[in-house]
């Protein structure tokens, strides 16, 4: 592609994965010892971590590179800046003490990388939901001391979801700091995954969206956004399918509340779709398809949709060109590629 053609906007990619060599070796050790009960982890990282297939080796190497190779890939596709986040499942597969220490270490390393390349990289902090109060403290440190721009949480943590009030110190911290939380996909939890595995549907092909969409609906229905009305959540992959369900989720939620079907579903101050429009932002990671991008922009607002590549998992130069060619005004195109990200993440 022609990366030197003049543009009226920067291209900021807002869901770009990375990992430390330390963490990748810990993943390899889990694969070797079968130390955790998470079938999705073994199905996903068993391929990326141990396979000698060219794609697996390439991903394993690319995701750890925070220097010349990554910068070269960005230059080759015309990406001006990456917003970096610790790849799924991050620290969330470890015990609380290990996860907390690992989050601190990776955030320090991420901040050091950003200091070396401040115009090319920004980042989101890893936190350990296993220790919610510690996660809140680490988010505060990462934002106020390290200059990170929010947090990434890789969906469920060992089968637990953030709608449980024991995790809400994390939301309180994010709201107080006025930074977003990016809920990034994970493979379905052990309670959910079995029907996905035999057809290899557990990861990006479908399982990621099904699992993360479920997580978000649990947050909404639990009343998280009535308790934290200024909380901001970012979703990748154009909202994990949820923008396409707005009408049906509102209709069915109202019926469930009227029927008083469950103690777990109480009346909300707004419709579910209102929270998705008021508290959420969306990136295009892995979804470089004009009809879907246009639909989400129309339904959720041009000020809530941002470009993302999903590097290194979906490093496809042609998709950058496709997004450049979206039928947008110059104002909306600059919002999409640059100014929405600058505003939401305070870049």
Describe the structure.
This protein has 347 residues and is an alpha/beta fold. It has helices at residues 21-33, 39-50, 54-62, 68-77, 96-116, 132-144, 168-177, 194-197, 207-222, 224-227, 237-240, 246-259, 272-278, 290-300, 317-324, 330-345, and strands at 12-18, 81-86, 121-123, 125-126, 151-153, 181-183, 233-235, 280-283, 305-306. The strands form two sheets. Strands 4-5-6-7-8-9 form a six-stranded parallel β-sheet. It has a three-stranded parallel β-sheet with strand order 1-2-3. The two termini are 26 Å apart.
Q: What characteristics describe this protein?
A:
single chain; 347 residues; alpha/beta; 6-stranded parallel β-sheet; 3-stranded parallel β-sheet; 16 helices
Explain the layout of strands and helices:
Layout: E1 12-18, H1 21-33, H2 39-50, H3 54-62, H4 68-77, E2 81-86, H5 96-116, E3 121-123, E4 125-126, H6 132-144, E5 151-153, H7 168-177, E6 181-183, H8 194-197, H9 207-222, H10 224-227, E7 233-235, H11 237-240, H12 246-259, H13 272-278, E8 280-283, H14 290-300, E9 305-306, H15 317-324, H16 330-345
Parallel strand pairs: 1-2, 2-3, 4-5, 5-6, 6-7, 7-8, 8-9
Task: Give a nutshell description of this structure.
By secondary structure, the chain is an alpha/beta fold.
Helix/strand-derived category reads: alpha/beta
Poorly predicted runs of 5 or more residues: none
Shape: globular
Whole-angstrom Rg: 19 Å
Give the termini distance in whole angstroms: 26 Å
- SSE pattern: EHHHHEHEEHEHEHHHEHHHEHEHH
Task: State the total count of DSSP E strands.
Answer: 9
Largest sheet: 6 strands, parallel
Largest sheet: spatial strand order = 4-5-6-7-8-9
Helix content: 40-55%
- The helix count comes to 16
> Beta fraction of the residues?
5-15%
User: Average pLDDT, to the nearest integer?
Assistant: 96
């Amino acid at each position: 592609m022609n990366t030197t053609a003049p543009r009226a906007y920067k291209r900021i990619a807002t869901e770009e994965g990375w990992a430390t060599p330390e963490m990748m070796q810990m993943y390899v050790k889990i694969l070797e010892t079968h130390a955790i009960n998470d079938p999705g982890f073994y199905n996903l990282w068993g391929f990326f971590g141990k396979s000698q297939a060219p794609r697996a080796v390439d991903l394993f190497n690319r995701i750890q590179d925070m220097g010349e190779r990554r910068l070269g890939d960005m230059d080759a596709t015309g990406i001006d800046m990456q917003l970096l986040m610790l790849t799924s499942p991050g620290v969330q597969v470890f015990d609380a003490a290990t996860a907390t220490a690992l989050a601190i270490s990776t955030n320090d390393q991420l901040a050091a990388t950003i200091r070396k390349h401040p115009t090319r990289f920004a980042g989101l902090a890893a936190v350990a939901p296993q220790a919610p109060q510690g996660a809140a403290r680490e988010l505060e440190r990462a934002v106020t001391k390290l200059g990170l721009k929010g947090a990434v949480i890789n969906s469920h943590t060992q089968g637990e979801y953030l709608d449980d009030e024991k995790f809400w110190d994390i939301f309180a911290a994010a709201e107080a700091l006025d930074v977003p939380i990016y809920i990034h996909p994970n493979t379905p939890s052990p309670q959910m995954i079995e029907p996905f595995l035999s057809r290899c549907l557990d990861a990006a092909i479908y399982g990621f969206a099904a699992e993360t969409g479920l997580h978000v609906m649990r947050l909404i229905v639990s009343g998280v956004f009535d308790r934290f009305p200024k909380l901001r959540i970012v979703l990748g992959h154009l909202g994990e399918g949820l923008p396409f369900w707005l009408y049906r989720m509102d209709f069915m939620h109202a019926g469930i509340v009227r029927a008083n079907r469950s103690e777990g579903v109480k009346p909300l101050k707004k419709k579910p779709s209102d929270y998705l429009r008021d508290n959420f932002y969306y990136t295009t990671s892995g979804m470089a398809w004009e009809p879907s991008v246009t639909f989400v922009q129309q339904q959720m607002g041009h000020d809530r949709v941002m470009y993302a590549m999903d590097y290194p998992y979906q490093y496809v130069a042609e998709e950058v060109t496709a997004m450049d060619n979206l039928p947008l005004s110059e104002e909306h195109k600059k919002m999409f590629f640059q100014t929405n990200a600058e505003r939401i993440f305070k870049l």
